[in-house]
Amino acid sequence: MTTCPRCGGAVAAGQEYCLDCGLRVPGPGRFGVLPVEPRHLLGPLAVLGAVALGGAVLAVWMTSDPAPTATVVTATGGSVAVAAPEGSAEPAPATWPAAADGWTVVLLSVPKVRGRAVAVQAARDARANGLQGVGIIDSSRFPSLQPGYWMVFAGRFTSEAEATSRLQRARGVSKSARVQRIAS
């Protein structure tokens, strides 16, 4: 048994720190082989690499489809307006002129992947609940809007204040209604 050079406390053979004062006792260093020696890292790294490769192959195999059953078609850009069928008793939805700037109350934004029919139904419901000037905007046609949505709107206004004055009534129909600037 040796003693600590700082406090004189007892230090056992191979002890790295003095238990009385915490001084690191001079000596040969760490016990055992250092973990960074290549001969001791080679085996565990090879096993780890084999497990990772096997896991990647298994994940690819489990998630692969045998063969595509249908062709995937991706639509980009705008959309085509479709006229209402003749003899329809329902009023035509309001439209937003292509070159007009202004403010509106957006009742709902429907991603195009869900289809225009969802937006059309929301517009019908809004008109049935008494909102005026309800229509649908293709957001891809206006640079001020995030593309890829059917936006159900209520009214076309010249100022933000005017649109905001109609917001409370619109929120009675759609809780998520918000005022939006439309610029071409």
Q: How does this model look, in words?
A:
- The protein is of the alpha+beta class.
- The N and C termini lie far apart (87 Å).
- The longest helix has 26 residues.
- The protein is elongated and about 105 Å long.
Provide a quick synopsis of the model:
With 184 residues, this protein is of the alpha+beta class. The protein has helices at residues 38-63, 116-128, 160-165, 167-171; strands spanning 2-3, 10-11, 102-111, 134-138, 149-157, 178-182.
Write the layout of secondary structure elements.
Blueprint: E1 2-3, E2 10-11, H1 38-63, E3 102-111, H2 116-128, E4 134-138, E5 149-157, H3 160-165, H4 167-171, E6 178-182
Antiparallel strand pairs: 1-2, 3-5, 3-6, 4-5
Index terms:
single chain, alpha+beta, two-stranded antiparallel sheet, elongated
Low-confidence stretches: none
The major beta sheet can be summarized as:
4 strands, antiparallel
- Give the amount of beta strand, in percent: 15-25%
Enumerate how many helices there are, as a single number.
4
